[in-house]
Amino acid sequence: MQTENKPTETDRQADDLARTLLVLNNYDWLKDEAKAVGVEIIPIKGIDLLQTVYAEHLDRFVRDIDLLCTSEADCRRLVERLCQEEYRLEFPFSMRPEVLAAKQKVSLLSCSMTKVNVDIHTAFVTKKFFAKTIGAFNADALTRCRKGHMEATDRWLFLAQHAAFHLFSDGKWTRDLMVLLLPLDGTQHITLTEKATLYGFRRVMAAALCHVCKGLPKQGQAALAALKPTASEQRFLSFVRHFDRPFSRHAFDRLIAAYWEFVFIDRRIARLSAWLRLIFPDKGMLSNIYKIKRPVSVLMFYPLNILIVGLTSLVFLSVYCSVTTLSRKSI
Prior knowledge:
alpha+beta; single chain
């Protein structure tokens, strides 16, 4: 009887290293392609970390490449260039003006075994329902970039919101936040708090630090002490801790995940504004939510969207209130 040889840890590490080297090689190629069409790109997320904090050991798995273009025009030029090479659009409708303006991201799929998928962003933070202050963060963080990389505290907040809105579902994101927090001192903790307050990231920072505290209790608690969460933020943290588990594909978990990012918006008026934008979205946002390929079909989805958002919002609100009320009684 023939037995199947399972890959060892050494095999997996070798595969990860090979993938990492492929990603770095692809990024160098992408820089040349961008330069050929006069576009400046900034590496973000995994590829940025590979070139900075993990540059010595390359021990950070990266699945694809995330790039920032500083304008929609640059994004279009680069996408057109790459689609002439070995890439294709994941969603053909994503290049429609109203869709690109709403999504602020274009996903490209590789047509070659020697290339990895690429996400091209037109802003650092591209969440659909986030507070309007995020525009200020995107602009200010861009001006603070040095040598093509984000400033340390900007990078931490940016990656914290990315991990938070994805429910901290991948352990590598928490590891990134720990590695990035480790060299920060008390003054930089205060800078983090000031930026989080200014740009509407207080809840994001609090939730991220709760995860960091599991691996770096001393540093995490020091940064959390600088933040000084309010009573409302403490109730929010009780909700986040209640769902500190892997999410499944069951209907209830999918509902919680769909509205997860709303609870991370700091101000109540901003949460209400975000909900109104969800129930009455513009054409670009509606196309993104339901992956509508034909512009003429968008109008048909408006009444359906109002019904779906109205009902699911009531369910989510009741869950949030019950969880935070129970936690308040237990204190």
